[in-house]
Amino acid sequence: MPKSKEAFHHRGTSYIVMGFLSIFITQLLLNLFIFGYLELEQMGGVWQSSFTIRAFFPEEVSPEVVEDVKEKVKALPLVGEVKLVDSEEAKSRFLSYFNLQEEDLGLEENPFPPSLEVQAQRVEELPFLAQELEKIEEFEEVFYGGENTDALLRFYRFFLTAGGLLLLALFVFSLLVVTTVIRASIQARETEIEVWNLMGATKRFIRAPFIYQGVMEGLSGGVTAFVVSLVFFHFLLDFLNTSFPLFFWINWEELILPLGVVSILMSSFLGFLGALLACNSIEEESAKK
Amino acid sequence: MGFLEFKKVYKVYPAGVKALDNVNLSIEKGEFVFLWGATGAGKTTLMKLITREELPTSGEVWLERCKISSLEDRYLPILRRNLGVVFQDLKLVPHWTVFENLISPLLVLGVKKRDAHRLAEGILDLVHLQDKKHHKTEWLSGGEKQKLCLGRALIHRPHLVLADEPTGNLDGATALGLVGTLFEFSERSGATVIIATHSEKLVNRFPGRLVVLDKGKIIQS
Ligand SMILES: Nc1ncnc2c1ncn2[C@@H]1O[C@H](COP(=O)(O)OP(=O)(O)OP(=O)(O)O)[C@@H](O)[C@H]1O
Ligand SMILES: [Mg+2]
Description:
Low-confidence stretches of chain B: none
Largest interface: A-B, 20 and 26 residues
Order of helices and strands of chain B: EEEHEEHEHHHEHEHEE
Mean pLDDT of chain A: 85
Strand order of the largest sheet of chain B: 6-7-8-3-9-10
Number of strands of chain B: 10
Oligomer: heterodimer
Radius of gyration of chain A: 29 Å
Number of strands of chain A: 4
Helix content of chain A: 55-70%
Shape of chain B: globular
Strand order of the largest sheet of chain A: 2-3-1-4
Radius of gyration of chain B: 17 Å
Helix content of chain B: 25-40%
Structural class of chain A: alpha+beta
Order of helices and strands of chain A: HEHEHHEHEHHHH
Largest sheet of chain A: 4 strands, antiparallel
Number of domains of chain A: 2
Mean pLDDT of chain B: 95
Bound molecules: adenosine-5'-triphosphate, magnesium ion
Distance between the termini of chain B: 16 Å
Strand content of chain A: 5-15%
């Protein structure tokens, strides 16, 4: 392959700035979203117990039924982990929770019913899973969460949907900007393209520099956003850790890998796709002429 | 079948202009041909059918046993790389340097930088533009641009050279020199050369074949 990216020098700088900025902003918001998501995951882990569904069997249930139901629950689609808490375990948990001895209870029979502790694959699906479990007749009682769990889950769902939609809109917007920018720089190079065509240049040869331009614009926007967000989160987390030290903040280091990977992949993909769309649309137009 | 064949070629432009009217023409390998005709006779149109900038309305154009009048678009690069063309409107990129315009056919062919430089030196000597190598093309005079265009048409040593009015901007002596360069190139490399012109003087100075076009018809070949 000839080095066709040298085929079009003297590029307009203002175009490049526009493409760069739109990708930069998109990537910045995406990074913010990733931060929020990771933070929520972290909190979800801490509040694991609130996010566990407990389904109690009646006291007199037979071990076979318990096993059967456990397998049945495991097979449900939304289910993550399932743990069986038998009567003995329930009793010892109770004793250690209240710091009691076996004798203190003075019971002949174990009054603690066995139960299943069920976790959802994704936290936001907890309520649906709980509904599913309530339908199983062998359970006497199904409940989950503390008082704030539902509110938290609502927020979580809202965050995911709103964030996702916003990101999608932003993605489409920057794709549009990149496409427009690359289209403009293709149109500014009409003379060159005509000459290259007459010299027998292939489609690939003519496209290559524009695709390259798109990817470079994407990458530069993405990498800048990556660096800026890392610095920003560094100070943010510093501030949060000193202001609310008891809260569970993620480590700054944990952000580097996911933000880096997403920034590079996403922004170069955006640039590439935008450039490709621009090339295609211009070729279609000139084919119609 | 000849190296280049036109078979019952008609070209009617969308506006209704009949530019070529039943053109039958056969040109052998290595021939040096003047395509002579008044303004509007159809010389450029005939050349554009070879470069596939235009398609014939009917009829066939064959080059080296390939029916280029029905060549698929994706093969056009292969056709064009094997042609050397001096376009009537030059088709130079004004903000490129002389050197950059000159080596563009080589870049398309994927020739290495070093070889491109070497070939460019030879051509710059041939067309007497050595001292303008790094000038912007738009700074060149009309005649210099034409010389550059000729250089670009020869640099990749094509088997077929089409020169459409290559002497339009040149004084008599320079025009003779330029056609002389083409003649020598043809003699030395065995390339087929077709020169479109309306200058009788030029036609008479070189021992080439004369093809006369008049209102789209070939009246002498
Ligand atoms: N794209 C076009 N659309 C419509 N008519 C055209 C087009 N190109 C050329 N023509 C017409 O076709 C006829 C032949 O044109 P052509 O350019 O082939 O002539 P020519 O012999 O090269 O003339 P000249 O010596 O002035 O360059 C002219 O009447 C011209 O107006
Ligand atoms: Mg002409």
